[in-house]
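Weekly structure sync - notes
Attendees: PM, LS, DV (DV joined late)
Agenda: review two folding runs queued last week.

Item 1: First target. Sequence and structure tokens pasted below for the record.
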Amino acid sequence: MEITVLPKDLKIGVSKDVQLYYYRRTEDIQKTKINLSKNTISFLRTGTKEVIGDDKTVQLGNDHFVIMKSGNCLMTEKVSDAFKVYQSILLFFSDEAVLDFLEKYHQFSPNLNNQKSFYIFEYDNFVQNFVVSLEQILKLPQKIQANILKNKFEEIMLYLIHQNKADFLHSMVQNIDDKISRLTNIVENNKFNKLNLEELAFLCNMSVSTFKREFFKHYQSTPMKWFNEQRLNHIAFMLKTKRNRPIELYEDAGYENFSNFVQAFKKKFGMTPKQYQTQS
């Protein structure tokens, strides 16, 4: 799977601290590897988006927008059923733009204990009007856009801070250097997602061989065995508490057919899923 580097691959032009792009496609894309070289706001207009990152998976419709920290993620985009198109306005901004803003408006605070890859916000009237203004800016020559965008970046940041405090901005410029902390964070938050080794290694910014080696050091298990254990434990919990039928759950456990799922479940728990569910 190729890696898409944004905003570089969009060929916007000369790199600036703040850049704007109208993104449109008429076909779905499935779990594409994305390297964000800048922090990004995706103002979704039509269609749906799913993003898998360091700490969580987010799913958005056009009633929300997302701020994404620079780094690696996996992204799925689906066109709107009604309009047969996916559209978003992408506002890219560098760490330097964030630092300049924090210094200018005296928004620095102590280090955060809980750093996130994504922050999700709901559209309101102010943001809707702001996005409309971005659409108008996109019609202007790039030189004029560059002069306006710094002020537009400050405008949306000041508003979001007013509504939500500044934690999301501090998180943009705080890096997690401990590779094991990053690995465990990604693994724990994606243990029920059906990601393969290549995708997990990509999120960790590691080769597959390095990921497998570091994973074994920490978990004393291979990734495949560990993920299977976690998913089967989760399915066992679902069978006891949610009363799902076993046949409804085997795909969630990562199995392509029900027979293999039953065999694996029986090997771990000593009984079939149905027996486990009906035991007192």
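Item 2: Second target, run right after the first with the same settings.
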Amino acid sequence: MSEDWNTKYGTRRVRRDPPTLDEAIFAAIGITDDLEAQAEIAASLMGMPLDAVLAEVRKIARSSSRSATRVIAGEQGAQRSIVVERRVIRKFGNDKRTGT
């Protein structure tokens, strides 16, 4: 299909934006855990050379491995997990009802 086509409502266009390098690497991380394979996937999505993408993949892997997990040591070095949940309270505008 071409970029522009006519419908009964008028001419329609599709905007095609190539992914950014960060988006391509994020997609590759979701597919595989291997850094080499992530770089190949991201390079093929972007149409960039493998060496340039591999450097960025390694840089992102280093930064995400440091901040990905936080463990708190309790008594006698035992590790425990902490789960934080956000509770959403909805307040409606019609809380003040008049009685009949």
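Discussion on item 2: Residues 4-74 form one domain.
Action: LS to circulate a short write-up before next sync.
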